[in-house]
Amino acid sequence: MILSMRVHNIALIEDLTLEFASGLHVLTGETGAGKSIIVDAVNLALGGRADRELIRTGTDKAWVEAVFDAGDDPQVAALLAEQSIDYDGVVTLYREITRSGRNLCRVCGVVMPLNVLREAAALLMDVHGQHEGRFLMEPAYHLRFLDASGGEEHQGLLAQVAAAYEAFIVNHRAYARLVKENEQKGYRMESLKKSLEELNKAKLKPGEEEKLTAEKERYRHSEKIASAVRAAYGAMAAGEDSASALSRVKEAVSSLQSLAALGEPYDSLAKRCASAYYELEEIGYELGGMIEGDEFDPRRMEQVETRLDLIRRLERKYGDTVEAVLAQQEKLQEEYDNFASMDGQVATMGQEHKRLLSAYRALARQLTESRHALAAAFEQGMTRQLGDLGMGSTRFEVSFAPKPENKQLMPQALGDDAVEFMISPNPGEPLKPLSKIASGGELSRLMLAIKSLEAERGGVGCMVFDEIDTGISGRMAQVVAEKMALIARSRQVLCVTHLPQIAAMAAHQFLVEKTVEGERTNTSVRLLDRDGRIGEVARMLGGADGSGESALTHAAHMLDTAEEARKARS
Q1: What is the mean pLDDT of residues 124-136?
Q2: Do β-strands 2-10 and 61-69 pair in parallel, antiparallel, or remain unpaired?
């Protein structure tokens, strides 16, 4: 149950603290006083849409904090344990929104993602909004209402079907893409084959372009290179009419060696000259080899240029460098090999597709069987609840849409079933779709009947009803009031209402008021004592400001009667 809630800078509320107890609580007040703001604040705390329009004018942020007593609820304990949050039975949900769009959530004081706050909130409070009744007008939602009435085994089966559907649909989409690719692979494989033949024939090698470019550069300067090499070699070897550099150095070596005995400097110089002689001799041999072997070869020059042209053409098609072209060649080969083996892939994935579909179908059939059994119990429960709500002559049925023969339905996350609620409000009338014949008052009672069934099964400890009494008046208002009081025996109930019968039946009544202070409008909420309740119920009965003697007397009588009824039930 919810213990307290604090609201700060939400719409017309500047700062408000509410405390709650067990039983039925009602919020009443004039139209426009701000009752819906309280529900908006509750929804915000539970993880609802963070509309910046909720932030009070003139302020930059707003927040709501709700404190719950969850007792020893194992689901709550398990969820908080997953998030490493210490749990002592009390859960605090905090939500802050700002005009800048920042959204802060805390669970038990620990900053958490919004989805965690929502998960925790779903275990603590169930809010039935004033517009939720429209879901009953949409047959697509009827299956969800039916499933929600199922126990743990049914919920587990729903989860299994959803998981089987997810596994199937992932495979189905991949399988469809693979089949399509396999059907269209011929043109692509032909294109890949031509590219690979071209690349394989080229036999490119890493670093090849650089080597060929350097060789081409040498050929381009071949005359200059040959002239310089010959000149260098001539200087080394000299000719018949002049001494060579080598012979001169050799003479220097002999001269210095003759002085070696006269001191270390001469010996050292002789050795250095000898070393230089041998080095120059090696250079001479190399220069001679260059002259003999590096003659300009026009045919080789043409081969180099042709090869470079091929490399650069391939680079324009497949990559900026030889290395990039080789990498692309590898990718193309992988793609070609993948296409070549695609028939086998299609066959393998097709087998998996059939297996996953079969697994889904088996679980979906189990779910259908479970739903049919559930529908029978749901119909009985709804008939009983509607009888309590003054609709004892109403027949209620869960109608399953027939499945087409000789045609397989596409798997769905919720299984293969489609249902629609059918009713016959009057004896002798045939069953018709609820969405086509139910009035506003009947819709409110139907939704209350569904919520009553939920309360019987257990579920969350706190239920919120926002004007579920829409379209109800007179004797039916008292019937609905008694039903809500009955729910409140096992659940904490918060209800926004305009009916005096429901207000009188409550154990706790809050008055929502709007006041103007200076240039600001404020909404406030206060817990009423008995005298306050008599006045407010009298106003709701139609006694203007509630001061009429007959209205006050009637209101006091309603409160006394409700108090006696509560004591009799306890």
Answers
A1: 75
A2: antiparallel
